[in-house]
From TrEMBL:
Classification via InterPro entries: 6-blade_b-propeller_TolB-like (IPR011042), Hetero-Diels-Alderase-like (IPR052998)
Parts forming coiled coils: none
Keyword tags: Signal
Signal peptide (residue range): 1-19
Keyword Metal-binding: no
Organism superkingdom: Eukaryota
Originating species: Gymnopus androsaceus JB14
Keyword flag Signal: yes
Name of the protein in question: Calcium-dependent phosphotriesterase
């Protein structure tokens, strides 16, 4: 989602965790343009189906589309329009082809939102595109502002995390019952020190090797950091104090974790996709830069799921939709096979 250019907030090392400058070293990787949208489209989040197709959520309309990455310049199919809403900002898959999408009423031009407007919808993609997607509302969030980051907490119980960007909280939703509650709320999830901009963004559950503890990792765009908090595997509530994993990641948006805990992140205002080493916190720039408009407003990343896409990173950009220089949103595939443990 759109923000003003923000400067990184310099945070001290927490519990011995190192800080690192996001400029880092440049290690360019091969990048394929899967699909380049025109200037009327702004993208936000994406997910990859088990069969390999990408699902993209629009930032400037309540639409989700499917893009076939294996056809020439992609093959785009409309999946669904969420009537009565303005944006589709979050997506997560619980069971195969069972996606949940977060929608809200947000003006991308004025960055104003309607408090109490967000909802979560179930999108059954089984058989798509031969059969239309089946869509139903799961839950309405009467106290929410803008729902964005989403992650599975328990597939068996149907529990997912849902982040609220402006309010700085992370909810747990039972997709089977619609019941939801605030689970995570701490100093690293809030918008600090100002009360505007984008806070909590990407959220991912991760259990490091040789550890019994599960953590919820989350990015905070305003605070320019990725932090983590130990969680209870059933309730999703914190069982310890949060800690900063890496800071000085200017305008960090969505990110992905490989099996080792290496972080692959989109840096919004720097137009970059980067890798953060899980041991050294060394930041490697994989593609893009402040003066490179190909990846204008980098926003989301996710790993591919097919055997041929193993270790490859899919990424989307907003493209400068509200800027004077609008290059159009894009869907890309980065060859990170030599840099990711998947």
């Amino acid at each position: 989602m759109r923000i003003s250019l923000l400067f990184a907030i310099i945070l001290g090392a927490t519990n011995g965790i190192l800080c690192q400058n996001a400029s880092g070293y440049e290690v360019p990787v091969k990048v394929e343009t899967i699909y380049h949208f025109n200037s009327s489209v702004s993208l936000e989040k994406l997910a990859i189906r088990k069969s390999g197709e990408a699902i993209v959520c629009f930032d400037n309309s309540p639409n989700i589309y499917q893009v076939d990455p294996d056809s020439i310049n992609g093959s785009v199919r409309h999946i669904h329009t969420f009537e009565g809403y303005l944006v589709a900002h979050g997506i997560v898959e619980v069971e195969d082809d069972q996606f949940y999408v977060a929608v809200s009423n947000l003006s991308v031009w004025t960055h104003t939102y309607v408090l109490g407007s967000p909802s979560i919808f179930h999108v059954n993609m089984t058989g798509f595109p031969e059969h239309p997607a089946r869509v139903r509302e799961v839950a309405h969030f009467a106290d929410a502002a803008i729902l964005n980051g989403m992650e599975v907490l328990s597939k068996k119980e149907g529990l997912i995390y849902v982040g609220d960007i402006p309010l700085g909280v992370i909810n747990v939703l039972n997709v089977n019952t619609g019941h939801h509650y605030v689970a995570i709320n701490n100093s690293y999830t809030t918008i600090y020190p100002f009360n505007n901009g984008s806070g909590i963004y990407g959220i991912h559950v991760f259990q490091p090797k040789h550890e019994s503890t599960k953590y919820l990792y989350f990015s905070n765009q305003k605070q320019a950091l990725i932090a983590r908090v130990p969680i209870h595997p059933k309730s999703g509530l914190p069982v310890g104090e949060p800690e900063v994993v890496v800071s000085n990641l200017t305008s960090v948006a969505e990110f992905a974790l490989d099996k080792e805990g290496n972080i692959f992140a989109a840096l919004f205002s720097l137009n970059q996709f980067v890798r953060v080493d899980h041991k050294t916190n060394e930041v490697l720039v994989l593609a893009g830069g402040p003066d490179i408009d190909t990846y204008t407003e980098a926003v989301s990343v996710v790993f591919g799921r097919t055997e041929s896409d193993k270790g490859k990173l899919y990424a989307v950009t907003i493209g400068g939709f509200t800027a004077l220089h609008n290059v159009g949103a894009g869907l890309f595939r980065l060859d990170t096979q030599d840099m990711a443990v998947v």
